[in-house]
Amino acid sequence: MKSFIGTYECKIDDKGRLKVPSSLIKQMENFDDKVFVVKRSVFHPCLEVYPMNAWDKVMGKINKLNRFIKKNADFIRMFTAGVKTVELDNAGRLQIPKDLMHFANLQKDIVITSAGELFEIWDKEAYEKVIFIDEADFASLAEDVMGTFDEE
Question: Mean per-residue pLDDT for 13-27?
């Protein structure tokens, strides 16, 4: 499984054009996708950007849900709300749609951070608040999440 690596501080202009760092562009090429899917995050006020292959895997799971169960239909609607496809332009920029910029409160200073086979786009101030956690809290979180992980 391919994964993105890195955290980058960037700028976004008023029109929603985000200049992607060259090292991230090189990583994007490893996914053999020219089109990416950008969507609202479920848990935080940020955006998630999926290579099309990774998005297809997620949608494969979602498409197995029974839409005649109301909570499934509600989840699918909310999960896919505002989903857009984007491509790098010739200048190495992604055009972030206005509605998604508003959702993530993207101002001028942003952070792009890797999250496995996708990457996230954050307002810089919001990102710094989310990652601010003391060592003991992070150690406890790591233990809860990874402590029982079995590599079989």
Answer: 93
